[in-house]
Amino acid sequence: MFEPVIGIEVHTQLKTESKLFCSCSTRFDAAPNRNTCPVCLGLPGALPVLNKKALLFGIKTGLAFNCEIAEFSGFDRKNYFYPDLSKNYQITQDAFPIGTNGHIDVMTDGKTRRIRIKRVHLEEDAGKSVHEGGTITGAAYSLEDYNRAGVPLLEIVSEPDIRSPKEAYEYLLMLRRILLYLEVSDCKMEEGSLRCDVNISIRPEGSDEFGTQVELKNLNSFRAVERSLEYEVERQSQLVASGGEVIRETRHWDEASQVTVSMRRKERAEDYRYFPEPDLAQLNIRRSWVDEIKATLPELPAARRMRFIESYGLPEYDASLLTDTKELADYFEAVVREYGEAKTVSNWIMGELSRLMNATGIGIESVKVRPGDIAAMLKMIDKGTISGKIAKTVFEEMFAEGKSPETIVKEKGLVQITDEEELAKIVDCVIEENREVADQVREGKDKALGFLVGQVMKMTKGRANPQAVNKLLRQRLAN
Ligand SMILES: [Zn+2]
User: Distance, CA 40 to ligand 1 centroid (Å)?
Assistant: First the structure.
């Protein structure tokens, strides 16, 4: 049996207003080449100046991934020629990354494993080639858009600690969750603000040695990462089992046919002639600043999940779902502050609210129901003002209109009937109309009683208090 050895490099775009070394906007949807200047185009004589916020975001992320933050850091030039890189070099961090030796804990199938983070570093993005006519080989000509050139990226490199395609998927989910909690990146794969490259080798289970690495490209979703890895584990295992040898190469994931295709062989690592960027000062990152940033870190997803289990007594399943995004976790806690029964709140959020959100495609940030209104509705159920069943109708209206539960109940006349005299009239009417069934109740048939309760509920459109109805029916039909 073979075991996969997987490492992942993630490039995520930092959510700064301006680029990494100039004041050009980082907006995604501007007209081509609108957001450019001599610095990000690399015109002679233009000098880069580091964006402090990007550095701050980098340190923040490094801390969240439990990295050591470098006291001494700086930038290097990575030299290569490509049309989307007008400078012919990319400013990146090679020798002195911001963060090193970190880790995050990843849970797969209920088991937690620690994945080490090798390094976290800042670099600028390249421009974008648009191949007119589709593919790079079939295009009549290509156009260059340098709006993206110089946009700050953070590269997060894992050690080859990941041991299954599913764990790779969970690792990426956790990584994205952390970045979103930190509010340093949008992490939108479809807009390219989060990209990942994966490398995978296999080895006999129990071995400490590393096999020949294959790099996978064109991974446009976390599911694509998982599936391409599943495919590669199978392909490499079969190859080696039948006496073949894995070649060091880059393979392209073909989403349509769900296979990886050989792109190019990698005989040796490319020589990028890295050297220190002479136009930027080296960085001495003050410890006091790092401490200041540390103090602003939000509670991270794993810690929040634990707290939800421990202080609210929620099951692990609830806690995981509720802490999936910071917004959802904040929403839950806002309701719980006004209505203390955490599990009841969790049931409503994961039940009715999630159901309606899925059905309408609305995210928690756009939900019209205010946390206080859910609390108010739950209190109305407790007081007997509305039944649990009616509450679902009320809640649907709250979700659609954003009105308070009190207003909806008043407008629609949904107040539960608890007045005994009023209920008694209805109960008598139901007994009168269902004499045979009433006789069966007198003979002690509980099923018949249920039927009569149902009739009363029907007549009152669910507004009768079922306990009160039950009591009245029993009194009237007692022998
Ligand atoms: Zn610029």
Answer: 4
Q: Kindly report the pTM of this predicted structure.
A: 0.85
Give the domain ranges of the chain.
2-289, 299-412, 420-476
Cα(422) to centroid(ligand 1), Å: 76
Q: Which residues are 275's β-sheet partners? A: 77
Could you tell me the two tokens for 34? Answer: 């609108």
Tell the burial category of 474 from Cβ atoms under 10 Å away from its Cβ (0-12, 13-18, 19+). Answer: exposed
Q: With residue 39 as reference, give the H or E element that holds it.
A: helix 38-41
3-state secondary structure of 145: strand
Distance 149 CA to ligand 1 centre (A): 8
Q: Is the dihedral of CA 204, 208, 214, 219 positive or negative?
A: positive
420-476: CATH class: mainly alpha
Distance 184 CA to ligand 1 centre (A): 21
> How far is it, in rounded angstroms, from Cα 319 to Cα 301?
10
DSSP code of residue 223: H
Tokens of 309: 């289990």
Neighbours of 185 (CB within 10 A): 22
Compute the C-alpha angle 359/363/365, nearest 5°: 145
Question: What are the tens digits of pLDDT across the range 194-225?
Answer: 999 999 999 999 899 999 999 999 999 999 99
What are 85-99's pLDDT values in tens digits?
Answer: 999 999 999 999 999
The DSSP code for 57 is H
- Calculate how far, in angstroms, residue 87's C-alpha sits from the geometric centre of ligand 1: 12
Ligand 1 center from residue 26 Cα (angstroms): 9
Instruction: Measure 15 CA to ligand 1 centroid, in angstroms.
Output: 16
How remote is the CA of residue 79 from the centroid of ligand 1, in Å?
Answer: 19
Ligand 1 center–CA 448 separation, angstroms: 79
Distance CA 84, CA 140 (A): 17
